[in-house]
Amino acid sequence: MATEDPDKKTEVVLLACGSFNPITNMHLRLFELAKDYFHETGKYKVIKGIISPVGDAYKKKGLISANHRVTMAKLATKNSDWVEVDDWESSQSEWLETLKVLRYHHQKLLSPDPTNSLQNAIPLTKPGRKRKQEPNRHDPVKKKNQSPDIKSVPQVKLLCGSDMLESFGIPNLWKSEDITEIVKNHGLVCISRDGNSGQKFIYESDILWRYKNNIHLVEEWITSDISSTKIRRALRRGQSIRYLVPDVVQAYIEKNNLYSSESEDRNAGVVLAPLQKHASDSKN
Fold this sequence. Notes:
alpha/beta
């Protein structure tokens, strides 16, 4: 692996979407585990990690305001030299499908200008290929001294835990065409504590099986059962969350008194945005 020509490696951007309610040390570990995995293959170079907290319109029970969640994520990553927080998704007034967020970030790599918006978040025509746009619009993106063996635009891959992979099977949570485009045109990087369960779920899904070569299962050998749900539960009970979240995040939570029984009841009884949207779409 050490003899591989670095100029021939495929550049990868890791995108993690989710509530980050709050962000935990485990969220940050996902990026490190994925980066190690890709670099150990000798075929990829991870150039950036992006945390994209979901907007308030997601309507998940106990979801506190995006402003707080984005701020905590930025505090948690302020010392990272490669993971950053993007608030585009969280600033939208309506809930956005994960696929649209992937498209947005791919488009941003093609054309990093301020006019990039949801309207530009259109599907890829072929995996890893540029879409047809105005002539010469994307010329500046081409890297200097670029090897013809490396794609000029990095691949944006969706970074997730095995729970997201399994959520693909929940009725009305994901559109099958969205799952297809995610795994076909972008790719999944799934951090799994039990590799067999991930493999089993891929086996049981025709869509995932068809594009299994674009799904990277990464085994988490040093396991940790930290979750945002358990963090919130500890906070409601007045228990310590030190060493489970970055110290700056803990300080921010305490300063703003963020998680309580009242905040956990937020959106109680409200149908989750994707279930609401996809159920109504299927009726029309």
